[in-house]
Amino acid sequence: MNNHVSNLVIGDHIGSGHFGDVHAAVDQVHGDVAVKIISKKDDQSDADWDAAKAEFLREARHLAAAEHPNVVPVYHLGESLDGKSIRYCMKLCAGGSLQSQYEAGPMRLSDVRKVGNEVLLGLSNLHARGMIHRDIKPGNILIDENGVARLGDFGLVTDELLHGYAIGAGYRDHLAFEYWELGITSAKSDIWALGMTLYRLLHGHEWYLESQLPRMVIADGDFRDKLKWLPHIPQRWRRTIRAMMHDDTDLRTQNVAQVQAAFAGLPTEPDWECEVGGQQVRWRRQQGGRVIRVEWNRNSLRRHDWRAWSEPIGPGRTRNLGGSNGQVGSQVAIRALETFLRT
């Protein structure tokens, strides 16, 4: 990473991260790029500004040191001539972050497994360099022009470890039990946060909001047992994510290599498209020349109904594939849907 002020043309604001705002820009060497900028505030003392700059520079240097195909690369770092702003130029990931996909709804199993495998490669590189990320979440996973997932926003990355632990920091819904108990994080805390990230990507924002905010209940213990699963998520996925989120760090999945081994066997079929809208959940997938659809209505605890059918692609008849035949209790509906959606 070179330290200089380049001839950047700053464009639209595209996001915010720790210590600064991110803008699209054009660089004379690299073309379209992203630039993270921190500026001195009018009421900021010189001492506070120097401290803020030091943190920002530390973030940029951590990101540059973690050079890897699954980490957002930094091209150069510079300070304005008047000393009132500092910026670093990095790769513009054309696909944006996974925050937008998470907010749109559940991602398919195949897409989440691909993202998970790619993030694990970047995280393995980070941990091998003695650093922990401390802020893994959908908004910090970026998709490049080739559809490859890259870890970004290194504002909370640290290599200041004592016996493998660091001071706790990060998005509060993604802080593992040890943070709430002892105020610390470690590489195993990154594993927990990745497990939570995968859970969120599989379920989408609307389903996630139906549960209590994790920050309110993680400290009570056994949070992984409180996760509410969509019926189509296979048991192997559930076991893998639960193992990543164990309260006891000795019983939690120990490292990235173990998660990668577990991921190698995760099923992606049937690979449903899922949509959550209010009290209704819908699934869709294509099989041969037909489209299979499932609709689940969750009217109240005791008033659920569901139905499944297939439609031809082109001429043909719609076929009934099953359903609840009226209203049933929630657990009856969920068990029947789990059976249907996983076969």
TrEMBL record:
Residues the entry annotates as binding ATP: K36
Any Pfam family: Pkinase
PANTHER family the record matches: STERILE20-LIKE KINASE, ISOFORM B-RELATED
Tagged with keyword Nucleotide-binding: yes
Keywords associated with the record: ATP-binding, Nucleotide-binding
Segments forming domain Protein kinase: 8-264
Name of the protein in its database record: Protein kinase domain-containing protein
Coiled coil: none
